Amino acid sequence: MTERTVNHPVHGAGLGLRRALMGPLAGRPTPQVDFWEVAPENWIGVGGRYGRWFRQMTERHPFICHGLSLSIGGPTPLDEAFLRRLKRFLHEHGIRCYSEHLSYCSDDGHLYDLLPIPFTEEAVRYVSARIRRVQDILEQRIAMENVSYYTVAPGSEMSEIDFINAVLEEADCDLLLDVNNIYVNSVNHRYDAEAFLNALPGERIVYIHVAGHYYEADDLIVDTHGADVIDPVWALLEKAYARFGVIPTLLERDFNLPPLDELLQEVDMIARLQHKWEENTRDALRRQG
User: Fold this and answer.
1) Among the residues of the chain, which ranges form H helices?
2) What is the mean pLDDT of residues 89-110?
3) Contact at 8 Å (CB) between 61 and 138?
4) How far apart are CA 128 and CA 73, in angstroms?
5) Looking at residue 112, what is its pLDDT?
6) Is 7 part of any domain?
7) Residue 55 predicted with pLDDT over 80
8) Total number of domains constituting the chain
């Protein structure tokens, strides 16, 4: 097990907050949800009923933000006006962590998809400089998420794992570990998911995502966040806990939202696995003592 020195911004099991949950959550206690996550683009500048509800939620619960539009690997300049608005938003709501995707989504306009960055030394330097600039503007560390992708970008010179590790080191930023994306890519690109997981720097992982996906074919999985988490992804999450220790973990569900009770059952599953590995760690320490 790798010794962790990262300061986790939250603890336990979390859930992505969607506006569709506003009604089901009204007057409903959710003690199994230790923290919530939102996309800041969906809430910056929102007023009225939704704005009041969001303010009430952030005053009562720990929140983190996972961005959609930073386009850290894109060819156009960073949107620094957006970053300044984001900085105010993070401060106003006491947001504990900001993360984004290690990909790009714009080129003179938003492309509405997350596209892979070429795995090259030049791209490592380019992306890392942009991450450092974001951290300077926000005056805080950010976390980059390993993403799912369906074709290797033209001109790639290194493996995905080497590219991710090089960016994390060069930018000196943190990692949002998405275990579902590792599983999806391991099927689509034919690599060993556990070996990939073990090669990541555990000391940089601030929290974890789990999600569901769609089987297009035996050799093609699409990362949709629109289905239940499957057993191999739960198993990979357990391997992450075994490798790095218990890390805060969030359930992502963006589409085909089931009833709230079903979502909370998956959050409960995260909590059970965390409790299991915390007990395993305590047992191991007792045996060593």
Assistant:
1) 22-25, 48-60, 80-92, 121-138, 160-171, 179-188, 193-198, 231-244, 260-288
2) 83
3) no
4) 9
5) 45
6) no
7) yes
8) 1
